[in-house]
Specification:
Blueprint lengths: L7 E2 L3 E9 L3 E8 L4 E8 L1 H4 L2 H15 L9 E7 L2 E6 L5 E2 H8 L4 H20 L2 E2 L8 E3 L5 E3 L6 E2 L20 H4 L6 H17 L9 H10 L11 H10 L11 H12 L3 H7 L22 H15 L6 H6 L37 H4 L4 H31 L6 H6 L3 H6 L15 H4 L2 E4 L9 H10 L3 E8 L8 E5 L2 E4 L3 E8 L11 H22 L1
Parallel strand pairs: 13-16
Antiparallel strand pairs: 1-2, 2-3, 3-4, 4-6, 5-6, 7-9, 8-11, 9-10, 12-15, 14-16
Helix pairs in contact: 4-6, 4-9, 6-8, 7-11, 9-10
Length: 545
C-alpha cells in the first residue's frame, strides 16, 4: 500500500501530511484518533515491504528505540502492519532537522555547534549504555526544536552490540559522507563509530561542507579510510579544532573514550575550562599543533585489493549518488552493491562484491589486529613524560641549592677574601652580601702613592711627618742648619714620585742656630776692653821687674 493523505492505518492513525522521505520509508504527520494527539508515523517503503530482511530491520528499529527513554531521543509509541505495510508510530517533534538548518544557514557558530554535539552525545550515551549503536548519525536524523533542544531519531539500522547483525559479512551500513573508517572497511561498528559521525557533523556545521567528498559513494568511503580531513578555518577556536580533530581520528583509540566524555569536553569548552576538556578527552592534546595522529589510516586490505574492490564498487555506486528517491528506486539485483539508506541525498552501500561473495575492500580484519590496548595504558603513557620532566626539574633545583651552599657559585671577590684565615674564622656563616663589601676598598688604594715635593716643601716638618705616616710611609728626619729661614721648615723630600706604601722618605728641614748667640760677643768686649790693656800694661812692667 502506498501511503496517501486521508487514509487510516490500523483503524487508528489518520494520515494528514507527509513530512519527509527516508532511506527505509516515508514519515507522515498523523492524527491518533484514540488519544486525540498528533504523532509521526514512519511507513516502510512499498518496494521493501516484501523483503523479509528489510521488514525484520524495520521491526528491530521499533524494538531498539523502545528500549531507550531519554529526552534527547524521539520516543516510540507503537508498531503495526496494515495491508502489507509496516509502520512505526513515534513522537512528533516540533522543529526541523539539522540538515534543513545547515542548508539555510550554511555555517553555525562554534558555541551553537558545541551545544548540538553535547546534547547529541548525551543521547547517544544512553543508547550505547544499552549496547545499541546508531550507525547512521547524520544531520537528517537530528531534529532541532524551537528551544534548541536536540532529538535523535531513526535507529532504523541500529544494531545491538551483543546480537548477531542483520547484515552479512562484508556489508556496510550507513551514509558514506558520515561513515566511520572502521565501518567503511567492514569492521564492527561501535559507539566510537557514532562519535566519528558526530565529528563529521560538527565539521560541517563550522565550515558549511563535509570533510570528505568524491564523485561516488565508494570514493567518499575510501577517503574516510585513507585521507586526513582538511584543516578547519583559523577563526575556529583552537580547543574546538582539537576536539573535532580527535573525534575524526582514523584510529578509534585516539577518539573520545565514550559519548559521555565527549559531552563533558564540549560543555567544558563552552564555559572556557580547557583543562577540564583535555582531561575528559586526552586526544585533544594530539591535535594542538598538528594533525599527525589523524593522517594514519586504519588498517585495511592491501592496496591491490582496494583497487579491485574500488573499481567494482564504483561501477555500482556511480549512479546511486543522484538522490534519495532515485537511489532507492534502483534494484539490488542490477547494482554491484544495493542501496541501504540515504535520507538527505547521500547513499549508503551494502552487499557483496559484483563478482559474488564479500567485497575485498570491506573484508573484516583479524581480532588481534584491531584490538586496542586498555584506556588505562593510554592515560599512563600520556602522563609518563610530564611526570619525568617534573622529577628532573626538582632534582636540578635541589642540586643548584646544594652547590650554592657549598660556595661553588660565589663571586671572585669572595674567593680573595677567603685566603685570609682570620677573616674567615671571624665570620663562620655570613650572608653572601656581607663579605664582598670590604674587599674592593683596600686593593686599589694601597698599591702606590704619588708623592710630590711641592706639596710639602715650606711646611713644618712635624706636619709633613704626620701626613706621610698617615699614608703608610716611614719618615726619616734630616735637620740641616741654615743661617737664614724659618725654624723647622721643610727644605726637601727624598725620594719623590710614585712610591709604594711603606717606603722610607727622608724629610730635610732647617734648623736655625739661635742658641749660639747666648755668650754674645758684643757685651763682653765692651767691658773687658779697658781691662785688657790695663792688665797688659801693669803686667808688663811687673814682668820687667
Amino acid at each position: 500500500m502506498r501511503p496517501t493523505s486521508g487514509i487510516t492505518l490500523g483503524g487508528r492513525y489518520h494520515l494528514e501530511s507527509r513530512i519527509a522521505i527516508g532511506g527505509m520509508g516515508e514519515v507522515w504527520n498523523a492524527r491518533d484518533e484514540v488519544l486525540g494527539r498528533n504523532v509521526a508515523i514512519k511507513i516502510l517503503k512499498e518496494e521493501y515491504a516484501g523483503d523479509p530482511g528489510f521488514l525484520e530491520r524495520f521491526r528491530n528499529e521499533a524494538r531498539h528505540t523502545a528500549l531507550l527513554n531519554h529526552n534527547g531521543i524521539a520516543n516510540v509509541f507503537d508498531y503495526g502492519e496494515d495491508s502489507g505495510s509496516a509502520y512505526l508510530v513515534m513522537e512528533l517533534v516540533p522543529g526541523e532537522p539539522l540538515s534543513s538548518i545547515l542548508e539555510r544557514e550554511k555555517v553555525l557558530s562554534p558555541d551553537r555547534t558545541l551545544n548540538i554535539m553535547a546534547q547529541t552525545a548525551r543521547a547517544l550515551a544512553v543508547a550505547h549504555a544499552r549496547g545499541l549503536v546508531h550507525r547512521d548519525v547524520k544531520p537528517g536524523n537530528l531534529l532541532i526544536t524551537p528551544d534548541n533542544r536536540v532529538k535523535v531519531t531513526d535507529f532504523g539500522i541500529a544494531r545491538l552490540a551483543d546480537q548477531v547483525p542483520l547484515t552479512q559479512t562484508g556489508q556496510v551500513m550507513g551514509t558514506a559522507q558520515y561513515l566511520a573508517p572502521e565501518q567503511a572497511t567492514g569492521q564492527q561498528a561501535t559507539g566510537s563509530s557514532d562519535i566519528y559521525s558526530l565529528g563529521v557533523i560538527g565539521y560541517e556545521c563550522l565550515t558549511g561542507r563535509r570533510p570528505f567528498s568524491g564523485e561516488s559513494q565508494i570514493a567518499i568511503a575510501l577517503a574516510q579510510v585513507n585521507d586526513a580531513p582538511p584543516p578547519l578555518p583559523e577563526q575556529v577556536p583552537p580547543p574546538v579544532r582539537a576536539l573535532l580533530m580527535s573525534m575524526l581520528s582514523k584510529d578509534p583509540r585516539n577518539r573520545p573514550a565514550n559519548a559521555i566524555k565527549l559531552a563533558e569536553a564540549a560543555e567544558a569548552i563552552r564555559r572556557g575550562d580547557i583543562r577540564a576538556a583535555q582531561a575528559a578527552v586526552p586526544g585533544m592534546l594530539l591535535h594542538d599543533d598538528s594533525t599527525e595522529a589523524m593522517t594514519q589510516p586504519v588498517r585495511q586490505a592491501t592496496a591491490p585489493t582496494a583497487v579491485v574492490g574500488g573499481a567494482a564498487l564504483a561501477g555500482g555506486l556511480g549512479a546511486a549518488a543522484a538522490g534519495a528517491q532515485a537511489a532507492h528506486a534502483a534494484s539490488p539485483a542490477t547494482a554491484a552493491l544495493p542501496i541501504v539508506a540515504a535520507d538527505d541525498g547521500a547513499t549508503a552501500v551494502e552487499g557483496d562484491h559484483a563478482a559474488g561473495g564479500a567485497s575485498p575492500l570491506y573484508a573484516p580484519l583479524d581480532e588481534e589486529e584491531v584490538a586496542p590496548p586498555p584506556a588505562q595504558k593510554r592515560r599512563r603513557r600520556a602522563l609518563t613524560w610530564p611526570l619525568v620532566a617534573l622529577v628532573l626539574l626538582l632534582l636540578f633545583v635541589l642540586l643548584g641549592i646544594l652547590l650554592s651552599n657549598l660556595g661553588l657559585f660565589s663571586s671572585p671577590a669572595k674567593s680573595t677574601t677567603s685566603s685570609a684565615p682570620q677573616t674567615v674564622s671571624q665570620t663562620p656563616t655570613p650572608t653572601p652580601t656581607e663579605t664582598p663589601t670590604p674587599t674592593p676598598t683596600p686593593t686599589p688604594t694601597v698599591s702606590t702613592i704619588n708623592v710630590s715635593a711641592a706639596d710639602y716643601v715650606g711646611k713644618n716638618y712635624t706636619t709633613v711627618q704626620s701626613a706621610l705616616e698617615n699614608q703608610g710611609f716611614v719618615v726619616q728626619l734630616n735637620p740641616v742648619q741654615q743661617a737664614q729661614g724659618v725654624m723647622g721648615e721643610v727644605l726637601s723630600l727624598s725620594p719623590t714620585g710614585a712610591l709604594p706604601v711603606g717606603s722610607t722618605i727622608t724629610v730635610t728641614y732647617a734648623i736655625i742656630p739661635a742658641p749660639t748667640p747666648t755668650p754674645t760677643p758684643t757685651p763682653t768686649p765692651t767691658h773687658a776692653a779697658p781691662a785688657t790693656p790695663s792688665t797688659a800694661a801693669t803686667s808688663t812692667p811687673s814682668a820687667t821687674r
